[in-house]
Amino acid sequence: MKKNTFKPGTKITIFFIFFGVLFFSLGVWQIERGQAKTKILNEFNSNLKKNPSQISNTSQKWDRVYVNGTWIGSEQILIDNIIHRGIAGYKVITPFKINEIDKIILIDRGWIKQNEYRDDIPEINILEQDETVSGILELPELGLVLSDDLVTDEWPKVSQTKNFDTISKEYDVELFPMILLADPIHKNSLEYIKITPTNMTPIKHYGYSAQWFLMFIVLCSMYIWYGFNRNEK
Q1: What is the dihedral of CA 155, 161, 167, 170, to 10 degrees?
Q2: In terms of residue numbers, what domain contains 46?
Q3: What is the pLDDT along the chain (233 residues), one digit of tens a residue?
């Protein structure tokens, strides 16, 4: 009985090494992404349980803070295409003059339902009075946008994104470099939508990792099978 020898050939070996390293690396990368997302979620959930501290120039993303100051109702921005409980609406972003650090911060006051006709902007007027507002700091990414014209021209403006770098360009003053999502307890807060700190859960990353490792195992099996059966007659 002739014993098979392992001779997969040079081209197949190069193919195997390239894709084997690729699949394995992608699996490891997804694990690392899952671990990073777990860390973000743990920090976020931990911050939610803390009492808010006074805002300062050293405050960071996901910190719970409070601000003392005055609303600026004349230059508000509505974030378009926000679906809440199956209903189309807007997030309302209102500038707020901070007393302590002499800056303006953009505050997400919450969600409001869209009117029947899109040209009919919802009522978002607010008294320009002193208030203390608490909440959590966020720095939204650009995300998926549906138009090249991201922000309309007239106040109150409508934006296709909540990305800070985009909407901050609509103001001629220095802004605090994050958005404050106001707690729902304040009298000027609208309907509250909880922050999702990551766009993908750790479990999904681990699931993708398992898929890449499975592909790696299948590739290894095919390579071994081919190497032993290549020269069979």
Answers
A1: -40
A2: 1-51+198-233
A3: 566 788 888 888 999 999 999 999 999 999 999 999 999 888 888 888 888 999 988 898 889 999 999 999 999 999 998 899 899 999 999 999 998 777 899 999 999 999 888 888 888 999 888 899 999 999 887 665 556 678 898 899 999 888 998 999 999 988 999 999 999 888 888 999 888 888 788 999 999 999 999 999 999 999 998 888 876 65
- How many domains are contained in the chain? 2
**Half-sphere exposure of residue 161, counting CA atoms within 13 Å on the CB side?**
20
134 shares a domain with 35: no
Of all helices (H) and strands (E), which one includes residue 130? strand 130-138
pTM above 0.85, yes or no: no
